Amino acid sequence: MSQELRAVEWTGTGLALIDQTALPHRTVSVEVHDVDTLVDAIRRLVVRGAPAIGAAGAYGVAIALLQGAREGWTPAGTREAVARVREARPTAVNLMVCVDRVMTRFDEGLDAVLAEAAAVQREDVEANRAMGASGADWLLKRVGADRPLRILTHCNTGALATAGWGTALGVVRELHARGRLEVVYADETRPLLQGSRLTAWELLQEGIEHFVQADGAAAGTILRGEVDAAVVGADRIAANGDTANKVGTVGIALACAYAGIPFLVAAPTTTVDLATPDGSAIHIELRGEDEILEWAGTRTAPAASRGHNPAFDVTPGSLVTGLVTERGVLEVSAGELPADHLR
Ligand SMILES: CSC[C@H]1O[C@H](OP(=O)(O)O)[C@H](O)[C@@H]1O
């Protein structure tokens, strides 16, 4: 069911977003008809995941046009509202890329904007399916095992994080569909638990065998030889292959390098940002301290303690065995660069 799940759906008059803060225990939808509600939904991770917030941002241009027509905004006022959507979260480049793409149709009006946003969504699903296939092909050839594979993943990179199917979880789904997946180790992914709440929910929907593990267990699981490869997503990939992804990712890449197993990043080319030369130039979103210091409204740390809450970290391209995009697999640690991929 979740393969066809649509985290972001245009209703004809607005957006329907699956509220990912309510999963896995409640499946509820948030209706969006104005820019402030959309910006809030992106900031609170009601909708989340680089390609999914890219799709939401793409339709956000239509939301701004419709709201502007209702409230008598000038074109300049509407553009300012779109800019607030574009800036709702700083790290995932898909949000900026997809808004900018749809804005090229702004002067043509609502129908053209909606057509472009629909193309963004359609192309993301197509890209994810292609990534799943090429990532699975590469893994089966590289690992060369005649048995099903054991994959570790971090955060959520499935249908919930994209326009459908998923990026890293799309590779997992493809291995499962081919009968070549033994088990998935899904990091819980503190502090917001995208792994234990969302990835586990998606894997259960499809009967994929998995364990949820503490983020701190990942390196030991890898070093004990219990994993054949790690496959993760990305929020922004710099020109040199440095990759920003959910906090905790770089530790997995280091463990994979030490253990000598592949570390794959699966992301559509809309996540590649050639204008960012390397990982040091990627803006890492710092989120509120309370996400670290509380859980479900209960304080877990002492009252006087402070929280440090970077939402992402940067994995050097030298640790990225393969970057899986819809165009194939780029062996970054072997010197292949994203620009070689985008020509
Ligand atoms: C398919 S990309 C998903 C990517 O986005 C997540 O971040 P967030 O949950 O904060 O939106 C995480 O970095 C995933 O790898």
Automatic annotation (TrEMBL):
Claim: Nucleus is one of the keywords in the record: no
Pathways per UniProt: Amino-acid biosynthesis; L-methionine biosynthesis via salvage pathway; L-methionine from S-methyl-5-thio-alpha-D-ribose 1-phosphate: step 1/6
Residues that, per the record, bind substrate: 48-50, 89, 194, 245-246
GO MF: isomerase activity
General function of this protein: Catalyzes the interconversion of methylthioribose-1-phosphate (MTR-1-P) into methylthioribulose-1-phosphate (MTRu-1-P).
Active site: 235 (proton donor)
Keyword annotations of the record: Amino-acid biosynthesis, Isomerase, Methionine biosynthesis
Annotated NCBIfam families: eIF-2B_rel, PRK05720.1, salvage_mtnA
Site (Transition state stabilizer): 155
UniProt protein name: Methylthioribose-1-phosphate isomerase
InterPro entries: IF-2B-related, IF-M1Pi, IF_2B-like_C, Initiation_fac_2B_a/b/d, M1Pi_N, NagB/RpiA_transferase-like
Enzyme Commission no: 5.3.1.23
Catalytic activity field: 5-(methylsulfanyl)-alpha-D-ribose 1-phosphate = 5-(methylsulfanyl)-D-ribulose 1-phosphate
HAMAP family recorded: Salvage_MtnA
